[in-house]
Amino acid sequence: MFKHCFLLLFSISAFIACKKSKTPTPADLPPTLDSARVYYMVTDARLSNTSIMGITGDAHFTYENGRIIRRTGGHLPLPPAGVVPGPYTKEIYDVVQYQPDKIFMETKTELAGYNIASKRELLLENGRLKKKIYTDNRDNRKDTVMYLYDNNNRIQRREMRNAYETFIQVFSFDGNGNLQSVRSTSTPAGAGDPSVIIEETFQNYDNRPNPLKGYWMWDDMYYRSLSVNNFAKYNMRKTIANGTLGGNSEARETVWQLRLDAKGNVDFSN
Length: 270
Known about the structure:
The chain is mainly beta. It has a single domain (25-255), classed as Porin (Beta Barrel). 10% of the residues lie in helices and 44% in strands. The protein starts with a helix and ends in a 15-residue tail after the last strand.
């Protein structure tokens, strides 16, 4: 009797463990790529007014013990002491350091005259990104982004609140675990309604595994890291409410031809 009960409990435990592991956490998805073309990356919605999609350049990754410790390649700020992303160059690089449940990232350059104002602290909980703190090196100002998840371990909502605005993003996925849309709103401090609404959609998915799932630390790779498969079409529409810059909108569509490597997997370095 004891033997049968033990086997039953073992089977139940194994079933639960397998069911929980169907959706890996970021910590379970080690990255392996040597490089990825910036051409395939999607700028975070908050920066869509300075969109730089479709440019040329590569992000190169250096590893130690299976973890990224450096990304080489980034945008020079415009002007040199500003924050608007400019030309993409290998003279910009990110250094990544790890602590238990924490990741520290800092963007650097050896070029004279450039003030790179970007440090990020990523706080993890149960292997998932829970909080991301951006620090502006020039005035030490901090912006904190909170990450909220659904019962399927998928990102459901991101929130950033500071003295100037509340920025909220709501994510939706299909039954295959692929990101379908992100709706973002920016509401000025003290206002009741958002002044900016950004709607993004992701389409034309293939049925191949996503090689970018382990690259969620970077904002320009975050969207691509979320899905089981790979999207080849992206639409963005940004609406600025009346009373702000007179009221206007911006729309953009990007379509990629995804290339395959010798093994038939999507090759984002090509």
